[in-house]
Amino acid sequence: MPRVRLSGKVAIVTGGGRGIGRAIALRFAAEGAVLGLGATGAQPLADTVAQIQERGGRARSWVTDVADETAVRDFVAGAVAEFGGLDILVNNAGIAGPTAPIVTLERAEWIARWRST
Known about the structure:
By secondary structure, this protein is of the alpha/beta class. The chain has a single domain, classed as NAD(P)-binding Rossmann-like Domain (Rossmann fold), CATH 3.40.50.720. Helices cover 42% and strands 16% of the residues. It contains four helices and four strands. The chain has a four-stranded parallel β-sheet, with helices on both faces. Strand 1 (10-14), helix 1 and strand 2 (34-39) form a beta-alpha-beta unit. The protein is elongated.
């Protein structure tokens, strides 16, 4: 089957350096998407980009901490500038740690909980 379902689409994936994020990125690339990958680890990101490129895909990574609004803005702006737009966003980055219903948390408390894990 040809790589057409996501041909011409630009996707960014947070947490794209390993695990589920890497699997999503590899699948999207196999379907023809161009990928912008963000995560906190430079080497896992580089490994994912290399896997995509080895298979004929196009990808670039940005070291990004999703708890840092400026870093996220820079990541998205960089991907848009690099690839000419954005069609798909996968908010995959996550952590294990304290949990609570999101509607009960103030932003500052969420960040504090995230950073304490």
